[in-house]
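Incident review: delayed structure delivery

Summary: a single-chain prediction request sat in the queue longer than the usual turnaround. Root cause was a stuck worker, restarted by the on-call engineer. No data loss occurred. The affected request and its eventual output are reproduced below so the record is complete for anyone auditing the incident later.

Affected input:
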Amino acid sequence: MDLWFSEFHAPDVKLSIRVDKHIFSQHSDVQRIDVFESKEFGRILTLDGQIMLTERDEFIYAEMITHVPMAVHKNAKDILVIGAGDGGVIRELTRYDRVQHIDLVEMDPLVVEVCRKFLPENAYRFDDERVSLYHENVLKFLRKCENQYDLIIVDSNDPFGAGESLFTKEFYGNCYKALREHGIMVNQLVGFMCLKFVFYGLSRITSGTLFGDFNVASFKSSIWYYYLPNGLQQWAFVYLIFGLFVPILISIILNKICHIAHSSIFKKV
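Output delivered after worker restart:
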């Protein structure tokens, strides 16, 4: 019997992947967590029926959301990571000797536990001595922070349902206060099908006098498991750069790099 996992994008649109085994399923206090085994993508982690990562392509997301801001901010030493309970972002950050401390706020401890067990290639750096792990509400955590971080990486769910609280004026205002001068915040903004809606909302949130002078730059990265007949679904990231100018040209440069990388990947497969 064929076993398929389907992720629904709209009433008339879904992505389906053939899976060999459904190796884990449990409801935590926050969400439903599932892990599937597949021939095409390896192990797949889903939260509330939405794909968070696959073993085959998770490195694309983790590397792009981590190494680009680290390349821009040459002195980022104290870092806050929000979400990212799979461990991919932590794995990439701990490659830097200059990083002194990383606070990871993941509300759901079961996500970390599941990834330690089923996705060890992602989660093996949680025990790095520079990493402090907090299982609490991120809004409450941020209210206690001021002028504390050089970089904030928000590896959140999409801005719907439980993830909506991370796309509010309170959240961005608290992130602003938590950043030091020249600090950077980077956030994923879902696929480009939703980008117009999200960018409009973000521009409204960050407008006015709440944040003072800052610059916004965006770049995009293509995620393998969203390969569709009409091309690759592209995942967007946005920077809120406070006191530090990063030209929007970075988006064009990274887009070119992504196309080169994809061409190389397809030749090998």
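Verification: The radius of gyration is 18 Å.
Action items: add queue-age alerting; document worker restart procedure.
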